[in-house]
Structure formats: structure tokens, C-alpha cells
Design a protein that fits this description.
The chain contains nine helices and nine strands. By secondary structure, the chain is of the alpha/beta class. It binds guanosine-5'-triphosphate. GO terms for molecular function: GTP binding; GTPase activity; ribosomal small subunit binding; small ribosomal subunit rRNA binding.
Amino acid sequence: MSDFHAGFACFVGRPNAGKSTLTNALVGTKIAITSSKPQTTRHTVRGIVHRPDAQLVLVDTPGLHKPRTLLGQRLNDLVRTTWAEVDVVALCVPADEPVGRGDKFIADEIAGLKKKNVLAIVTKTDLVDKKRLAEQLLAVSRLGEFAEIVPVSAKAGDQVDLLADLLAKYLPESPPLYPDGELTDEPEMVMVAELIREAALEGVRDELPHSLAVVVEEMEPREGRDDLLDVHATVFVERPSQKAIVLGAGGERIKHVGSTSRRQIEALLGTRIFLDLRVKVAKDWQRDPRQLRRLGF
Ligand SMILES: Nc1nc2c(ncn2[C@@H]2O[C@H](COP(=O)(O)OP(=O)(O)OP(=O)(O)O)[C@@H](O)[C@H]2O)c(=O)[nH]1
């Protein structure tokens, strides 16, 4: 696995730059989590590109706006934090519209983060001729320092594979971050598991660094009700001492994890859910291939 790369990338750019279309083109139809989903996690996963050599997790942020309120300021901070944390930021600029102040504003914000892995993507290349594209590439190159500038057309499928190669190149060496295989056909189960894992790690991250995995065993509408979904999930830890941490005194922590993640899952799925959460010790699951497979790794 040592040559495997995995990490997060974020497409940024003014509205209509073609970010969603590009995300879908990269991900394929397999696991595109649609844009109608609300912002539920700190990093809203929009899609995951699974390749033999890499796993690229595309995350989403709201746009940056001139902050008029404290909340607006906080939101902007959150956006910047996400940009700072992801492995690659890619600024998208459409080929068919002049580079403008909106692009410059975002480019300057990114420059302020002093990141190495910043790419520029000129989107919608099918809409312009070669000469116009060349001019646009030049104009974009003047927006800032970019590791690569890539022209693509998500509609025509032009250079999308090349872009995937380049993005993968800028990810750190790492095992896959999300389960591959059948589970990718059920993005919602993966996301639900991720929300629970996030909630379970809240406040105890240092005590349970990598020892926590969450598996959603079942997600089914309650019989006779179309407004309620039963979700059965298990939090796996490696040792009984960790189980005690996750449960908390008198089960207080796990109750809190349940209610926090339930709210987020309901926002994600747009339906009420009943969350049945169990904690199990799967001894040394990280070193046991059978357990790993069961846990989706
Ligand atoms: N011709 C052409 N049109 C494209 C291409 N990519 C996106 N579009 C169109 O451009 C418009 C905006 O695309 P989106 O992918 O929604 O853009 P976005 O950046 O996600 O927009 P926001 O969600 O508003 O930030 C849509 O009408 C797309 O169909 C492309 O490669 N070629």
C-alpha cells in the first residue's frame, strides 16, 4: 500500500464556475452526493474518486462573502480553515467569461494561506476556441502562483482524466480514507457512518486516535411509516478501556454522540431517523485483515 495516495481536495471559484459539474465528471455517476445536501460536516464530502493508486475525496465549502455579521465572519473563517486543511485547493475559472474581481478575490484569499498545492482549472473549454483558451490560460496564470493550470471540459469529458491524475499526484501517501467497493454504491451509509465517527471522536480524539471505526449495519424505513428511518450502527473500538471512554460515565457520552449525530444525519437525509448505536470491542481490528474487511477497509 505504500504507493497509495489519499487525501482531500476542494474546488473553489465563483458561482457557476462549473465546480459541481466537474465534481460529478470526476466521480462518475457512482457516488456523487448531490449539491442539494446541506452542509452537515465540517468538510462536506461531495464525492470520492476511487482509483487503483489513489483515493481523492472532494469536499465542498460555501462561498466566501463580504462578512456583514459575526456569523458571516465565522463562516468565512470556516471556509478558510477548510482550504487550509485540505491537501489540494483548485481554483476554477470558466473559459468563457473574463477573469474578474471575483476570481482575483478568491485567488488572493488562497494565496494568503501560503499553501503549496494550489491548482488552477480553466473550466468549460468546449465553449471557446483555441485562441480564446490560450488567452484565458494566460489571464489565469496572472491570478497567482499555481502548481498547475489545467484546462478541462467536464461536459465534453476533455482532460478530466488528466485532472484526476494531477490531483492524485498532490495527495499525500496514505491508505484509503474511505471504504472502497460495495459501500461506495451507498454513499449515504458511508456519510452516516462518518457523521457518527466524527461525533464519537469529539473531545476524545487524542485518547482514541485511530482506534475507532463505525459501521452502519442497516438503514431501513420503519414499517408502515415513510417519515422514519431506522439506522443501526456499531462503533468499533480496539480495547475495553476505549469502550469505556466512548460510553462515558453512565452512558452519558454515547447518548450525546447519538443525539449529535442523529441531528446531523436527519439534516443530511432530510428525514427523521431512529438511531440505534452500539459500541463493540473488536480486538486489534487494525491489525486483523478479516475485521478490517468487515469494517469496510
Ligand atoms: N458547456 C459547458 N458547460 C458547463 C461545463 N461545466 C459546467 N457547465 C455549466 O455551467 C453551469 C454551472 O455549472 P455548475 O457545475 O453548477 O457550477 P458551480 O461552480 O458548481 O456553481 P455554484 O454551485 O453556483 O457554485 C451549469 O449550467 C453547467 O451545465 C462544461 O464543461 N461545459
